[in-house]
Design brief:
Layout (H helix, E strand, L loop, with lengths): L3 E7 L2 E7 L13 E3 L15 E3 L5 E9 L11 H19 L6 E9 L6 H12 L5 E7 L9 E9 L1
Parallel strand pairs: 6-7
Antiparallel strand pairs: 1-2, 2-5, 3-4, 5-8, 6-8
Length: 161
Amino acid sequence: MSPAIKHFIIGGFIIMTISVPTATRANDDLKLTIVNPENLYDPSPNGYSTAVIVPRQGRLAYISGQGGQDSAGALSPDFAVQVKQAYANLRTALDTLGARPDQVAKLTVFVVDHDMSKLEVLTSNVKDMFGEALPAQTLIPVPKLAIDPMLFEVEATVVLD
């Protein structure tokens, strides 16, 4: 049998549900498995993991890029303020989905005019939000984002319970 795939749009979030006929087990565990192989560089001090395994029964939600806008849509000109607000916005999106930070499997972050001085701000905010459950993460330097004063954006893939 082929899997049935359904997409739902709820409040700006795309939720993809994949239904695959399988035997039900009493102890299905929907926790993510974080993988940092010993023979590779340990990325955890920099706020991410090499890989994350998503459980077979997990439902995925994709959170669109969250910028540093406050609830009124204002953007600070300060990079660190925007990053902190973007992660607060991501947390709000997770809360809306009924999800926790340890359910985030993957982050993609976009940084305008990235340089090494911005890594400390990024790493600090990721560790504050995720603790030891560091998701896989890709940083993409960009010359510009959707709105001119925007300096940072983060999107997430989340495994829902």
